Amino acid sequence: MSNAQSKLEELQKRLFYTLFMLGVFRVASQVPTPGIDAASLKSFFANQQGGIFGSFNMFTGGALERFSVLALGIMPYITASIIFSLLQVSFPVLEEIRKEQDGHKKIQQWTRYATVLLCIIQGYGLAVGLENLKSPSGMPIVLDPGMGFRAMSVITLTAGTMFVMWLGERITEKGIGNGISLIIFAGIAAGIPGGMYDTVNLFKNGELTGPNLLVVGLIMVVSFWIIIFVEKAFRKIPVQYAKRVVNNRVFGGQSSHLPVKVNISGVMPPIFASALLGFPTTISSFVPEGSPIKMYVDTIQESLYPGRILYNVVFIGLIVFFCYFYAQIQFKTKDISESLKKNGGFIPGIRPGTRTAEFLDNVVARLTLVGSIYMSIICIMPAILFDYAKVPFYFGGTSLLILVGVAIDTMAQAESFLISERYNTQYKARGKYSGAGRRF
Q1: What 8-state DSSP symbol labels residue 1?
Q2: CA–CA separation, 347 vs 255, rounded Å?
Q3: Which partner for 273 in 157, 218, 250, 318 could form a disulfide, CB atoms 3.0-4.6 Å apart?
Q4: How far is 244 from 301, CA to CA, in rounded Å?
Q5: Could you give the count of Cα atoms lying within 13 Å of 149 in the half-sphere of its Cβ?
Q6: DSSP string, 222-264
């Protein structure tokens, strides 16, 4: 069997493994947490499309509206990752630990511990919040409220989130692509049939007119084209390699380019922003009824509903912040400039070393500005569509951005998986490379 064929079979196994794990995730999201009146909860969420609960329900693939064991989804893990990413920037000691041989594993383990703590806090807050909610008909959602229900909910939801985190890590390790992003992708994609069904019902009932439906479809097509165009766009920075002589052989003297994507941060900024916007809802559930600050907390929570002006402003601000923040993590200009210098590479007209890093910083800053503006416009589309066209939240810009972005990244990883083997085969055929134990 040729190496190319074996590599293709390995890729197929990784794809099947990924699909299997995503199937396990979808099955687990159907398992309910005890103590909930399913009918009352479903009727409550039927009136929450476009609201903050509808937003969280979208990311969990409908697990929240069923209050399943995966109701918290992967958001606590994402929030913990944000915290440790910020701590690494603020405290150089953590950055030095990450650069050690097993430093990444240590940071990952601490992130898991923080995830458990956040699950306990958010799970308790969600349980308390559900005890205070009622269906539109006035029926309570929780059948037997109290500490027993809260303890059961905390244990169940924490275990569910840790299970989802484990699934994501297994997909990253043995599957293809970023497991966390693919799980969010699967959750959003699972709601598309329901969203289409609701849209058809709105049209049949006369709540959604034909022109509005046509405009919505046109906006979706244009949004797909813009997202694909920007996600694949990049700037080519020319790189020249100096000639050098090694063992009477001449190396270098070639021209190449350094590709810098317009949207370096990918789909993570809106995911991070959505995770942080969930904190007011969690905090408000801890404030008891009759408290003097209850009114102020509820006012803040209501102001942060999708579609409100404050929500849009905060959401855009968080997206811009995380675009710049995540771009620095993904594209380390200092490390790239040092690598170019060690390999005899330089950017024409720019001195190697510090000046190269400064030049790359300026390029990344300008591209990130364009990427953050594009992402902000796409992500506030859910509020605009829901307020003016009355379409389901699943057709919003955030979900489209995640769906298209994750699909493009997954396809790129599959292509790079095969291209790497093709390059190795070409080098071996030319006699330039004969395995890890041989020299060039």
Answers
A1: -
A2: 10
A3: 318
A4: 63
A5: 18
A6: HHHHHHHHHHH-EEEEEEEE--EEETTEEE---EEEEEEESST
Evaluate whether 370 touches 386 at the Cβ level (below 8 Å).
no
Determine how β-strand 234-241 pairs with β-strand 255-261. antiparallel
Give the separation between CA 350 and CA 179, rounded to whole angstroms: 39
CB 261 within 8 A of CB 367: yes
Q: 308 vs 265, 285, 311, 395, 400, CA distance in Å?
A: 26, 21, 5, 18, 21
Residues with Cβ within 8 Å of residue 314, at least 6 apart in sequence:
277, 304
Least confident of 11-15, 114-118, 133-137: 133-137
d(CA 219, CA 223): 6
Q: Do 177 and 72 touch, CB atoms closer than 8 A?
A: no
Contact 239, 257 (CB under 8 A): yes
State the burial class of residue 241 (Cβ atoms within 10 Å of its Cβ: 0-12, 13-18, 19+): middle
How many beta carbons lie within 10 A of that of residue 98, not counting itself? Answer: 15
Calculate the CA 46 to chain-centre distance.
Answer: 26
Query: Which residues touch 244 (CB under 8 Å, ≥6 apart)?
Result: 250, 251, 252, 344
Please answer whether residues 180 and 77 qualify as being in contact, where contact means their C-beta atoms are separated by less than 8 angstroms.
yes
Q: Which position has the token pair 């270098």?
A: 252
Q: Could you give the CA distance from residue 269 to residue 376 in angstroms, rounded to a whole number? A: 10
Q: What pLDDT digit, counting tens, does each position of 193-224 carry?
A: 777 777 777 777 777 777 777 777 787 788 88
If one counts every other C-beta atom within 10 angstroms of the C-beta of residue 77, the result is: 26
Domains of the chain by range and CATH?
A: 3-429 (1.10.3370.10)
Nearest-Å Rg of the Cα atoms of the chain is 25
CA distance linking residue 440 with residue 136, whole number of Å: 73
Q: Where are the alpha helices (DSSP H) in 29-102?
A: 38-46, 52-59, 63-66, 75-90, 92-99
Quick one: CA dihedral 238, 263, 111, 176, positive or negative? Answer: negative
The tens digit of pLDDT for each residue in 338-390 reads 888 887 788 888 888 888 888 888 999 999 999 899 888 888 876 666 665 55
Identity of the amino acid at 362 = N
The pLDDT tens digits for 65-94 are: 778 888 888 888 888 888 888 787 777 788
